[in-house]
């Protein structure tokens, strides 16, 4: 299988190509921070925090950031690393879990519904452009006709 085909299949598998409910041993958790070496610190709905590992097939193809929700499966041989990532949740899968009443109530308030523009990157390095309207009588008469005054141009 070529590298492109492998990446396509891995992305579909990781980002919820098919909607299926979690198995008994799987749980939904929230990523708290990345620890490096494909390890992530997560928080369970009960408030417990531990490390999970990224499977080899996801590495260099999928990135998980702080605040993302993932589906994990416990691994028996883990002391520090107690689980492995199975799926990365997106907006559609979260909505599907909420419709089936499987979404943890502890995560309800932390992830509010965002608008369509909520996923767009905002550059915080630039100051926002602020515009002020003048209080002169010229701007009031021109604003009624839909034209801009010379001061605002």
Automatic annotation (TrEMBL):
The GO terms describing molecular function are:
RNA binding; translation initiation factor activity
**Ranges of compositional bias, category Acidic residues:** 134-153
Q: Which domain of life is it from?
A: Eukaryota
Matching CDD domains, A to Z? S1_eIF1AD_like
Classification via Pfam families: eIF-1a
Residues making up the signal peptide according to the UniProt record = none
InterPro entries in the record, alphabetically?
EIF1AD, NA-bd_OB-fold, RNA-binding_domain_S1_IF1, TIF_eIF-1A
A GO cellular component annotation in the UniProt record: nucleus
Cited Gene3D superfamilies? Nucleic acid-binding proteins
Q: Where is this region: Disordered?
A: 106-153
What family, per the record?
Answer: Belongs to the EIF1AD family.
Query: What is the recorded name of this protein?
Result: Probable RNA-binding protein EIF1AD
Gene name as annotated? LOC113491798
